Amino acid sequence: MLLRKSTREREFELLFKDNYNKLYAYAQILIDRREEARDIVSGVFADLWAHFDAVDTTKTLTPLLYKLVYNRCVDYLRHQKAAFSYLEFLKQEDGPVGSYELLEYDDRLEEAIEAMNDLPPRARDVFHKCVMEDRTYREVAEEMHVSINTIKTQMLRALKILRSKVMLNKC
Fold first, then answer.
1. Cβ atoms 124, 162 nearer than 8 A
2. Could you tell me the sign of the dihedral formed by the alpha carbons of 33, 36, 42, 47, in that order?
3. Do residues 12 and 52 touch, judged by C-beta distance below 8 A?
4. Mind listing the pLDDT tens digit for each residue in 72-104?
């Protein structure tokens, strides 16, 4: 017995076929990583499919798709920057990294990401804005309507927690 595709499924399939290759090329330009670009574009379409019943298909969805891919690429790059920053921090703490040590650093990087997620909410927010978004203490203080000293205190708290967790896992 053959099942017929619904109108929504055909609309989605057409949208996918018309846009996937263009969005993939766009993502690849933004992040310069083939596999990750595929994952990002596939994730956008998977999320779109999950909410496709609520989408107004009478309007063109192409600009929305490009914006979603762009935002995911920016998130990916921010995550990569944070991971790179942490790897640089580890290099300063432990000296130069040899290729044989990369697996150990990969494990430690995962531990650091978990540790960042475990920070108290305010310290995590400040840490994220200062480190991952590469913003100054002054910018973050103005946005959060607090003093620069409060931002410094929160950063010190976050770094202290992260260092203690990294040191605990190092032993």
1. no
2. negative
3. yes
4. 988 888 887 776 666 666 556 555 445 445 556
